[in-house]
Amino acid sequence: MDVIPGAWRRTAAGAGLLSADGSVAPTIFAEMSAAAARTASVNLGQGFPDEDGPAEVLEAARDAIAHGANQYPPGRGIPDLLAAIGEHQRRFYGLEVDPDTEILVTAGATEALTATLLALIDGPDDEVVVFEPYYDSYAAVVALAGARLRTVPLRRPDFQPDLDQLAAAVNARTRVILVNDPHNPTGTVFSAEVQAEVVRLATVHDAIIVTDEVYEHLSFHSPHVPMATRPGAAERTLTISSAGKTFSTTGWKIGWIHGPAALITAVLTVKQFLTYVNGSAFQPAIAVGLRLPESYFDDAAATMLRKHELLGASLRAAGFEVLAPQGGYFTVADATALGGEDAAAFCRALPERVGVAAIPISAFVTPENQGQYAGLVRFAACKRVEVIEEAARRLAGLR
């Protein structure tokens, strides 16, 4: 008996979800984390912090559990969190969002993205434009939705796209332009010119802009500018974010999406058959987090920048060329001078070689374009300072 239907098998294989023998393919993140555990390596691969979030947020979750917030919350999210998201968007960006009709709480940003693409994609003629390298779930979800992925390369050293290449990628078949800003894995922040061109192209071709802004409070050198604030963008933009990166609560999986009411309703029709609802006790805690004073958010960005600077100095001392990030969790470095022309092989050998785990940028790139990023490696800076210092000591062994 063929347990996995043929159509699903072909789609899953194309998305990299199945190995050649039909078994479930482990992600590079799982592979590198397993290697780190096996070798007692410092894990700078998977992007999760090793410190807890703010005490008042954690205490709010405990209090919610103690006071009975342990059953299904409302389908759109608890009213106080919906209100807090709306307040947050107004406070930081001047966006007016209706909590009752224009916001949906999700099981992290990944579910928001998945539900959105499943809701918006009509068939195999639809295309989704993404910037490459891209977070690995993007290609998988596009494939599962039955659409075609079109990529626009980000060019080193600043990882900004060529606007002519962007314009060539967007066409009458484009259903969604997906923008991750600040960007994972490169750490770039897109320029005003890039944002304006995305809006122009979406308007000309009647496409929906979907933004992944989970690192919105980790923009280092200038305040984050949501795509929805650009002229002409709000009526065709769905904005996704989450609590995990902002409050160091990645395991809570509390995300959200906001945008025009009709589009949010379409996303809800899919989301209700994915997780239905989630995180009843965590939702009120994140409402507390979103209302923290601005000093918390400023300090979070400043602390992350200092960690990037420490990590970057360590990587340079070890012989890497460092491409300093403008935001987010990750620093990208070129390992070519250390014999890392094949970054995937380099990363697979690194735990045994010096006791550090990292992720090759090739994991975020379509097979035909991997040559452009062959020597690049992603290191996570979202760790305690003493952990980064220990990684630096070990990486010095590469010299």
UniProtKB/TrEMBL annotation:
Gene Ontology MF terms in the entry: kynurenine-oxoglutarate transaminase activity; pyridoxal phosphate binding
UniProt KW keywords: Aminotransferase, Pyridoxal phosphate, Transferase
Gene3D superfamilies, alphabetized: Aspartate Aminotransferase, domain 1, Type I PLP-dependent aspartate aminotransferase-like (Major domain)
Required co-factors: pyridoxal 5'-phosphate
Domain Aminotransferase class I/classII large: 42-395
InterPro entries in the cross-refs: Aminotransferase_I/II_large (IPR004839), Kynurenine-oxoglutarate_AT (IPR051326), PyrdxlP-dep_Trfase (IPR015424), PyrdxlP-dep_Trfase_major (IPR015421), PyrdxlP-dep_Trfase_small (IPR015422)
GO cellular component, one term: cytoplasm
PANTHER family: FI04487P (PTHR43807)
Family: Belongs to the class-I pyridoxal-phosphate-dependent aminotransferase family.
Protein name per Swiss-Prot or TrEMBL: Aminotransferase class I/II-fold pyridoxal phosphate-dependent enzyme
Organism, scientific name: Microbacterium esteraromaticum
